[in-house]
Design a protein that fits this description.
Layout: E1 2-4, E2 8-11, H1 18-48, H2 55-84, E3 88-90, H3 91-124, H4 129-132, H5 135-166, H6 171-211, H7 217-246, H8 255-265, H9 267-278, H10 281-291, H11 293-307
Antiparallel strand pairs: 1-2, 2-3
């Protein structure tokens, strides 16, 4: 929540108490470091371990990269503001923050949609999996997800700047124009999110209908172990974000508003590495291998040879 100034904005902190501000900064610093460590580990493991060079882990690596960037957009600024007891942010900084926040959130929804389709093809069309999810198709899907996010972020920031330019010249018309812009952007964002949500739901309906036909309990458990982490991440992220954006605006934010803001901006990037790694035997084995002394020695020797 922000208060507009002439040259920028004043971010409203969680509390005016100095001790609580420092506590908030330390708590968020710990969360940020955990998210940073977890997502960097996943990116590193998937990059180094050739056994994880498959579409599922390729998309997971990009999800971790998005999470890493997403949490870095807001949390460091919030930590710095609490430590410095200053909520000022310039107009340019605010516009950039809005752009990256919207772009990365939109890209994350798109990547989660692609991941659900990947699981659908792997489980329901296993014989055609390598043909459909070939490396070229995976790269195009990831590029499309990043570009869709950038387009969404650009729409939000462009409309905002157009409104700022118009208000001094034609005040009454500007308010009407601003309202139409908000309706257009909201319609685009809502329809895109709805399409992604429907795609994810349809994918999992087909997945679960296929899984229930598997005769062995062990086979069903194995399939569920690859799908449930992704389904949990999708449900948590979309439900928290949906509540935040669809609720009526309030001039005096409550504790519930604050909690839901934290849920979709801070918690998912921090928990995603844990969710995807704890229930994934391949990820746990790759992590042990990367962190082992022998593997570390081999990597160290390899880098020395490259340097010389």
């Amino acid at each position: 929540h922000i208060v507009e100034d002439i040259s920028g904005f004043l971010l409203m902190g969680f509390s005016d108490d100095r001790k609580l501000q420092v506590l908030h900064a330390l708590l968020f610093l710990v969360i940020y470091l955990l998210a940073l460590t977890g997502n960097v580990l996943i990116i590193t493991i998937i990059t180094l371990d050739h056994r994880l060079h498959s579409p599922m882990y390729y998309f997971l690596k990009h999800l971790s990269l998005l999470d890493l960037c997403f949490i870095s957009v807001t949390l460091p600024q919030s930590i710095a503001n609490s430590l410095l007891d200053s909520g000022y942010i310039s107009l340019g900084q605010c516009i950039l923050q809005v752009f990256f926040f919207v772009a990365l959130a939109s890209s994350e929804v798109a990547i989660l949609t692609v991941m659900s389709y990947d699981r659908y093809v792997a489980i329901c069309q296993p014989l055609q999996y390598e043909t459909i999810m070939n490396p070229s198709a995976c790269r195009r899907a990831v590029i499309a997800a990043w570009m869709a996010g950038a387009l969404s972020g650009l729409m939000h920031t462009t409309m905002w700047k157009m409104d700022d330019a118009l208000i001094p010249q034609m005040l009454k018309l500007a308010f009407s124009y601003e309202f139409m812009n908000e309706i257009a952007v909201a319609a685009f964002t809502t329809s895109t999110a709805f399409i992604c949500l429907i795609s994810i739901v349809l994918s999992y309906i087909r997945i679960f209908s296929m899984v229930l036909r598997i005769p062995s309990a062990e086979g069903r458990t194995k399939v569920f172990s690859t799908c449930l982490p992704h389904l949990f991440v999708v449900t948590f992220f979309l439900s928290a974000a949906g509540f935040e954006f669809l609720r009526p605006p309030s001039d005096s934010p409550s504790a519930v508003d604050l909690m839901f803001s934290i849920f979709y901006t801070v918690i998912p990037p921090t928990l995603n590495p844990v969710i995807y790694s704890l229930r994934n035997e391949a990820m746990k084995a790759a992590l042990k291998k990367v962190l082992s002394k022998d593997e570390f020695s081999q990597r160290k020797m390899y880098f020395k040879m490259c340097c010389f």
